[in-house]
Amino acid sequence: MKRAVVVGAGVGGLATAIALRAIGWNVEIFERWPRIVGEGTALGIHPDAQAGLAGLGLGRELHERTVPYRRAQIRTPSGRRLADLPLKRIERRGGAPVRMLSRVSLIEMLAQRVNPATINTGVEITDPAALRAGYDLVVGADGVRSAVRKAFFTGAAEPRYTGVVAWRGVIEGFRPQEYGETWGRGQMFGMTPQAPGVTNWYAPVRTPEGVTESLDDLRARFAGWHDPIPRVLEAVDEETVLRHEIYELAPPLPSYVTGNVALVGDAAHAMAPALGQGACQALLDAVALAACLKAHPDDIPQALRSYDARRRPAAQRMVAASRWMTGLAVADRLTGPRNALLRLLPL
């Protein structure tokens, strides 16, 4: 039985372990945190990623844990409608609506399908090169600051600050009249469903690198925006708010594979948040990697080349689209022409 080691137990790492195990591989996972961390708020699972989860045997549970997201608008800070988010188009093309769940719930769902004896937590991989000799495959699923990428793809790409800090949280027992996003100058505010009776909110804001703002600063930023945005922020419990500087990889990697090493998820293609595709792309990576290894069971280098050809162009197009859309959503100038453009775009 072939042996793989997966470094990182996030969405991409756990999904990869499940997918490899399903094609007969022996898989071991190393995670640097003392436990599997399910931190985060809502994720939108697009139809192609839903199909990937169904292929891992998680389709029914996904539907049980998620709520559909079918209608949402983009508005100005005064509340004027600019456009609809393209949820109907996604459903029409993909045959299913985007489905929302918390990252905690997705991690729980994936972790339950992995043999606990194969997960090694609290392990910092300081010499990834040493893993190559002991395993047929090394998978780097260890995020934007990937130790695996740093060891095997030297100088190819580095984390680059996008200029955006993402604030996120949830409000229980509250549902807005309209879900969607409000685009202003240098910042935006969005709300989606997360679970019955639970609303997810997020606020990407342009912030100089290294500057730390408080929740009161965030409230001040959105003071005067249309209802219910100020009310939502006023009701937020500071202990539950998440704040992260957003990084992407630059320049794009010339390959996601080298030798018997493959990258998945943010280790390969960390991206800006506007399209909400990070988790989906990680799931697609995991499914594709296993499919390519199954198609070339006796030729791992060929399987990895096939994986790279299948996933890198698609993922890098998504990175570019996410960068463009994030820049549009939090533009700090020319917001008038931007708003006029939104009325014309076939979103």
From TrEMBL:
Domain FAD-binding residues, every copy: 92-321
Keywords, comma-separated and alphabetical: Monooxygenase, Oxidoreductase
InterPro entries in the record: FAD-bd, FAD-dep_Monooxygenase_BioMet, FAD/NAD-bd_sf
Transmembrane segments: none
Lineage top rank: taxon: Bacteria
Record GO terms (molecular function): FAD binding; monooxygenase activity
Pfam family, one: FAD_binding_3
UniProt name for this protein: 2-polyprenyl-6-methoxyphenol hydroxylase
Organism taxonomic ancestry: Bacteria, Bacillati, Actinomycetota, Actinomycetes, Streptosporangiales
